Amino acid sequence: MTAQGRFITFEGIDGSGKSTQARLLADHLRAEGHEVVLTREPGGSPGAEDIRKLVLEGERDRWSAETELLLFTAARRDHLERLIAPSVANGKVVICDRFADSTRMYQGLGRADLRGAVDQLHKLMIGREPDLTILIDMDSETGLERALSRGDGEERFESFGGDMQRRMRDGFLALASEFSDRFVVIDGGREIDDVAADVQRAVKGRL
Ligand code: ADP
Ligand code: TYD
Fold first, then answer.
1. What distances in angstroms separate CA 190 from CA 54, 134, 187, one per listed residue?
2. Ligand 1 pocket residue status of 147, Cβ below 6 Å
3. 137: nearest Cα among 183, 94, 75, 87
4. Is 1 exposed, middle or buried (0-12, 13-18, 19+ CB in 10 A)?
5. Which atom of ligand 2 lies closest to the CA of 43?
6. What pLDDT is attached to residue 2?
7. Tens digits of residue pLDDT in 54-85
8. Could you identify the atom of ligand 1 that is nearest to the CA of residue 188?
């Protein structure tokens, strides 16, 4: 019998610990014998990684909110076509650091009120939701500090500042209520191992 593929995403504000927890979950599931694909957005396929550089580097007014929405959606379409959909179809567990919920937040709510356009474009070009979304929730000040301390040259979004981080945190919690069938909210303001244990528990019931 072939294993059933699964699509799991991590969401949350910058610096909340998504990448750390996605990696730990991938290690854990591999040790349990699952075939795991660990990936991220924007990016995850060669074309989408090229688009990543366009959207995350440079001046904050490099793109209008609308153009940015198109670029993120283009990157996601390529990632979905070339990596996510084929991997899930082959029975793998795909773990993705950010997906469409980030667009609902950052482009739909963050810079302009574009949620209607985000939803239309998603329906037309993506049309797929994760089986499970783990929201790593944490206070916005700590998140911003952690994100800026990385100094990785991808600060275009972080330069939008603390007020944006606060609105994003509230927005993600509202999104978790809107899509309560697939969201699990986990407190990210604790030791890494404690957060990871909760993530494992949330995933266990769904594999
Ligand atoms: P994100 O992917 O959400 O931006 P990261 O996983 O890259 O977050 O974490 C941001 C920074 O915070 C990294 O330097 C990471 O080592 C650190 N970090 C992650 N989780 C925790 C935690 N629970 N406690 C303290 N520091 C953490
Ligand atoms: P990411 O590399 O996950 O940053 P971090 O590790 O700091 O959380 O994502 C980079 C930025 O891209 C992040 O600030 C959120 C933004 N983003 C969007 O604005 N829209 C999207 O659709 C996605 C996937 C990310």
1. 34, 16, 7
2. yes
3. 183
4. exposed
5. 24
6. 57
7. 999 988 899 999 999 999 999 999 999 999 99
8. 23
